[in-house]
Amino acid sequence: MTYGYKTLKEFKSEYIKEAEQSIIVPEYSTNKGFDTKVATLMKDNFKSNPTKMFIKMNGYLRSVVRDDWEIKIISYQEEPETYLATLAATKALGIKYIPTIYSYKTKNLAMMLNSCALGYGNNINIFLSYYLFNKVLSCSKEKEFIIGHELGHNQCNSTATHIVGVKEPLEASRYGEYTADRAGLLACKDVEAATRALLKVSTAEKVPEEKVREAARSMVENAERNLSNLSGDNSTHPCLERRVAAMKAFASSQMYARLTGTPVDASMLSDEALEQRLAKIIKGGK
């Protein structure tokens, strides 16, 4: 008779199997070549030395969490909307286990308007700024987008690049943002809400809610009209106009319909047409 104990060999075997099954390249990835390379390296490393990978992942998590953060685990009782938004985003992206959800307080302005998901596959720790989620974002859809965005980075193995020593080129980083925005949109299913969330995260100033809503509506409505007037981007994050245009295109695609369980229509962008549209958006609409 046994009581559920496992030998180290059994534990490692299950750990490797879970890693192999949950480390994926999601269908919505905008950079499948790079993401596949990282996912393959992750799986190979787990096979060769799972203990070392476990230690590396936890070491990286400790290196990212700042000393000045005040951290606590989020419960439904204390932050119900944020907790439920995390559950909704997790379900929308097909993540098997509920992430460990932390809320942090900091005086660092950049991190006050930021959040992150650290881990791999189904093994995720998500850190959400208390200020952002309780003072800035005004509805569950905006929260679902931000959480989905961070989980999208995790699904495409952004953390893994630091663990397996893959240098992430600028282009790959920028594609990673388009991919994560798609994940956020799959979570919230509302392009305007996603745009409002990005607008709020991108400014350090408190902007009246109605002005944010007006700006978001206008940005979505005119998503691709002014792309040719934009200058080139050289940062890790594409400009907001390009990101909104890319999300709007994704929302009108067959891929989005498949992933959200809605009817696929011939008038929607095919996967090939969606890829071409994104390339056009990145080049300034030309």
Helical residue percent band: 55-70%
Supply Rg. Answer: 19 Å
Task: Give the overall shape.
Answer: globular
Strand/helix succession: HHHEHEHEEHHHHHHHHH
Q: Which class best fits the helix and strand makeup?
A: alpha+beta
Give the number of DSSP strands: 4
Keywords:
single chain; 286 residues; 14 helices; four-stranded mixed beta sheet; alpha+beta
Structure report:
59% of the residues lie in helices and 8% in strands. It starts with 7 loop residues before the first helix and ends with a helix. The protein has 286 residues and is α+β, with helices and mostly antiparallel strands. The protein has a 4-stranded mixed beta sheet with strand order 1-2-4-3, sandwiched between helices.
Compact summary:
The protein is built from 14 helices and 4 strands.
Task: Please give the structural blueprint.
Blueprint: H1 8-22, H2 32-48, H3 50-64, E1 70-73, H4 80-92, E2 100-105, H5 109-112, E3 115-120, E4 123-129, H6 130-136, H7 140-155, H8 158-163, H9 170-188, H10 191-202, H11 209-221, H12 240-251, H13 254-260, H14 271-282
Parallel strand pairs: 2-4
Antiparallel strand pairs: 1-2, 3-4
Helix pairs in contact: 2-3, 4-7, 4-9, 7-9, 7-10, 9-12, 10-11, 10-12, 12-14
